[in-house]
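WARN no homologs supplied; continuing
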Amino acid sequence: MTNASVEITWWGHATATVVDSGVRVLTDPLFVRRLAHLRRRRGALPPPEAAVADVVLVSHLHADHLHLPSLARLAPGTALVVPRGAAGAVRGLRRLAAEHRLRVTEAAPGDEVAVGEVRVRAVRAEHDGRRLPCGPHRSPALGYVVRGTARTYFAGDTGLFASMADEVGPVDVALLPVGGWGPFLGRGHLDAARAARALARLGARSAVPVHYGTYWPIGMDAVRPHEFHAPGEEFARQAARYAPGAAVHRPAHGEPVLP
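OK structure emitted
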């Protein structure tokens, strides 16, 4: 796509603001210093303006992606897109949405939502989307493609799967998770190398690595600390190997980039 213009600000973890065609799209807002056993170890807490959005996209029901206190910071009238079944699976979501007058849409892969000049399409993610630590498989894990002047793919949490490129479709920019919050990533996740292979399959012209270098389990500061810092740099190195035509942008927390 030519003449595509999009601005991306990474606030840490999987939280980012994508601005396209004057529409502010916020992903998986997490605005706290500590969540259960996780503590924010890098970057200041996002400022109030980080919660300003026209639409908020929630990829799945894990508490570090669907975080009710962070959603409570949204302005009344904000559109909120969540996986199908989220309101029934997450206690308090329906009440919070009513109290804060959020306009909630539940989505499954293939569904589209229009917000101003932008269209948002939900796509499949390969990830356990349940509300942990326990819960039935009521809701899918999702990624989203934001289409305005550019096509921006927010992968949420996902593993690499064979039909990814076909299901996501052509994209200009890819926001890819590369590290999570711990040193060991199992099925349903991308590490730096798998994210680089995903970038190659997608054929995006640029990428922004996310979901790394923000939160770390309490007590693990001295255990493999390089695993906390390394994924972004390692993704750039692996992308140069697997997708040499793509530009990798590694913004600091709160730094906007024009990929």
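Residues 7-248 form a domain with the Metallo-beta-lactamase; Chain A fold (CATH 3.60.15.10).
OK
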